[in-house]
Amino acid sequence: MRYRIPFVVGIGVGVAVGLRYGRPAFDNMRRRIRDLRERPDLQEAAGLVTAQAGQLVERARVVVTHRGGTVSTGQVRLLNGSSAR
User: Fold this and answer.
1) CA-based end-to-end distance of the chain
2) pTM above 0.90?
């Protein structure tokens, strides 16, 4: 499940570029993506995002697990700006 969406998007982009522009454009796009993925600053940013996402998942797990228990986690801010307990 984790890799399903990027996989489908990748296939879709590949087919679209391949049909529209042909093999040279597709190879150029792959080369640019590979060059971007190898940049140290982008790898560092990806590592930070991954760490923060892991912390967010852990916090959500604690909130869900201890909902109504003795552990005080404070208010959870929802995406619409309101708060829930």
Assistant:
1) 30
2) no
